[in-house]
Amino acid sequence: MSGQADITATVTRTRPSPAVVLELLKPVTWFPPMWAFACGVVASGASLWDRWPMALLGVLLAGPLVCGMSQAVNDWFDRHVDAVNEPHRPIPSGRMPGRWGLYVAIGWTGVSLFVGALLGPWGFGATVLACTLAWIYSAPPLRLKRSGIWGPLACGLSYEALPWITGAAVLAGMAPDPRVVAVALLYGLAAHGIMTINDFKSIEGDRRFGLQSLPVMLGPERAALAACWVMAVPQMIVVALLLVWGLPVAAGIVAVLVGLQGLAMRKWLTDPRGLAPWYNGAGVTLFVAGMMTCSVALAP
User: Fold this and answer.
1) DSSP state, 212?
2) How many CB atoms lie within 10 A of CB 187?
3) Domain assignments of the chain as residue spans, ordered by start
């Protein structure tokens, strides 16, 4: 009996608990792509009366599955960096033992591709692209996250533009309105700045392991200023496009939201490292409100 108890205890110690697996998938990061897919659903103009299962499946795919998978992939290949920046994370803390982090990343990739196939060719194609970007972002030899330019760009397009366009295409059952594609891509570019904000918490580890994030390359003050311009300019272009398309009310709302972001940016720039978490809450809320405003305005 004692030997059996020892074996059971060993198995328990060498397998992560469901709570640790959930922590690895970082639920707090799921909201942006889920929101973006919902923006696509709204922009499609499709009735949800008989297509709500497709919409719900897409939202789950964008968040818990694809985004969760990307977090697992990133944590596995960043485990040495997290040992410096966030030693409490599941892998560096030892609560995700052995190679279980890699196993979860691979398994969640397979589940994501299976669910993506259920959404038809648009959904499956987008899932393949999202999974590919997730792996080349974190994994060598490409490891896009080593660059403060290409890494945030890949994340911004994956988190905002891709699920937005996919939601519109899947619900409409056809290629989305080119205006929706244009606005989604602009917000995806603007999200480059949002992704840069996340790098302020990991400057020490990034510098030690050669990751050239913008805060490492430019320093916190100049990186914050660059992120502000990257977030603001694409949104100002969106305002101009809405006016050209004869949507002045939506243009006015987005312009106000951009102005409020500007006020939040001024505060953030007074202490880029200390106030980065604050801006992630205040500024990003205004950012995503603009996304939905555009989707409502562009819906047929």
Assistant:
1) B
2) 27
3) 16-298
pTM of the predicted model as reported, rounded to 2 decimal places: 0.92
Token pair for residue 26? 């970082």
Helix (H) or strand (E) holding 214, with range, is helix 214-218
Q: How many CB atoms lie within 10 A of CB 285?
A: 13
Report the C-alpha gap between 129 and 21 in whole angstroms. Answer: 24
Which pLDDT tens digit goes with each residue over 228-270?
A: 999 999 999 999 999 999 999 999 999 999 999 999 999 999 9
Residue 176 has pLDDT above 80, yes or no: yes
Q: Which CATH number fits domain 16-298: 1.20.1070, 1.10.10, 1.10.600, 3.30.870?
A: 1.10.600
> Residue 3, exposed/middle/buried by CB under 10 A (0-12, 13-18, 19+)?
exposed
Q: What is the DSSP string of the chain?
A: -HHHHHHHHHHHHTS--HHHHHHHT-GGGSHHHHHHHHHHHHHHT--STTTHHHHHHHHHIIIIIIIHHHHHHHHHHTHHHHHHH-TTSTTTTTSS-TTHHHHHHHHHHHHHHHHHHTTHHHHHHHHHHHHHHHHHHHSTTT-GGGBTTHHHHHHHIIIIIHHHHHHHHHHHTSPPPHHHHHHHHHHHHHHHHHHHHGGGGGHHHHHHTT-B-HHHHH-HHHHHHHHHHHHHHHHHHHHHHHHHTT-HHHHHHHHHHHHHHHHHHHHHTTSTTTTHHHHHHHHHHHHHHHHHHHHHHH--
